[in-house]
Amino acid sequence: MARAIFIIYSLFHVTVLSSGQNPCLKRNYGQGSVVCVCNTTYCDTVGYIDKLSPGKIQVFESNKEGLRLQKKVLNFSPKPRNQSRNGQKWASALVNKNQRFQEILGFGGCFTDTSVLNIGNLPLNMQKMLLKSYYSPEGIEYSMGRVPMASTDFSTHVYSYDDVPGDFNLTYFKLSEEDVKYKVPFLHQVFIMSERPIRLFASPWSSPAWMKTSENMTGNGTIKGELGGAYYNTWANYFVKFLKAYEAYNIKFWGLTTENEPTNGLQYNFSFQCLGFTPESQRDFIKMHLGPSLETAGYKLKIMIMDDQRFLLPKWADVVLSDPQAARYVSGVGFHWYWNEISPPQLLDITHNSFPEHFLLATEACEGSWPWEHVILGSWERGEGYAHDILEDLSHWTVGWVDWNLAVNLEGGPSWVGNSADAPIVVNSTGKEFYKQPTYYAMAHFSKFVPPGSQRIELKHETNTNLEMVAFLSPNKSVVIVVVNRSSDPVMLTLEDPDLGSFNNVVSPRSFQTYLWSSG
Prior knowledge:
The chain is an alpha/beta fold. It is built from 11 helices and 23 strands. The chain has helices at residues 2-12, 113-120, 124-135, 177-193, 230-247, 279-296, 315-321, 324-327, 346-354, 380-394, 438-447, and strands at 15-16, 26-28, 34-38, 56-63, 70-75, 90-103, 106-110, 144-149, 199-204, 255-257, 302-309, 330-336, 359-364, 398-405, 408-409, 425-428, 433-436, 455-463, 468-473, 478-485, 491-497, 501-507, 511-518. The protein has a 10-stranded mixed beta sheet, with helices on one face. Helix 3 (124-135) packs across helix 4 and helix 10 runs parallel beside helix 11 (438-447). The radius of gyration is 23 Å and the shape is globular.
């Protein structure tokens, strides 16, 4: 029966490319699927999405076999297309555009030191290629970016912006070379090449060592003294100094998180930069120091709490957002994807239902983060990990999904502490190449086609498989459906729009598909 499905597929569908799309230059490293290679003279592009014609459906597919955002066009039929199931794998879904949920803010990645140094090691034309691959209409059109405040584990050394002990006035505050030489110019390029507004948010890993109880930026420790004291006040003003320093380069931030993974700073001998907060101390820091300091300085940013693992919900949100004085400064809750196997997505539903006026944003994720892992060029399973997690989060009130490093080297670094991680783009500076991983295309199936301002809509579906899908209505009233098939079987899918009719399509084994059509 699977063979019959593919015969139908090949007879009735013609494959075409999008406007301005350059195909993937494939290379197989024997790790399950291919990477797309970019070099000094060539890089694959996605290009503009063609205008949607009435009654037509555009379908973009990437799969384990090697398709990367391959496009074809289908037609609606005014009559239902019920397929004979006969034991085959099948799924059907009905779009309900009248039932709407959260508005999408966007997708993006993090401008870590590791990322910008790797990008900076490429020839100038390739630096532009890589940034365009993420942020331009030629690429997958990221619309968010995370910027660390000083060093992280993915830096080449440990530093803060003010390492002068006792400098409570922050007289010696100064951005690093990594900021001025790399992040600032790369961000300027991104702003120019993007046709979508870019929402930047900042995240600190640690205060300067002299502000911390351990006198060390790494390992456990909290801000010295009592809440209401000089150290907490200076730490809040450190945020203001950072924002003003970037503003001097004409870079403004949309938001910030109050601390990256604050529970790390409560652990004994944690290996890299961190700063400890409990939900209670973060609540009090926001209402007594950070919120008022930003307000006094004239900043109206989106403050996000937690920025830590999903299993900390809903308690963290309950503690902070149940306090009206703290909640008035807070716009959202940031969370990471690590340990999601013990963090059911229903925790997001509970949090949203308790605090519907505060958004949920996935602020960090990466594959290959465990000490025994490394970069795997062409791992389709890692692409599936991304696609599943993004789809799951978006199906449970999340407004966007932000990746970790924009780029790593072949070893998954550099990192001063010896950490390694995979990334959607891997740089081979010696060979003057970079490689787009399956995770890059997993991101693309969402970031390219679900622009900011889209709203999730209801998708009533039934299936005899584990097919995953989510639907949106874009600002230009296009319906967008993303479908993920992590099984080794093809699935016959029937999609129905009550206003237009229905259509059938085969969802290939181990594939991602994005469907678009004009809702009229």
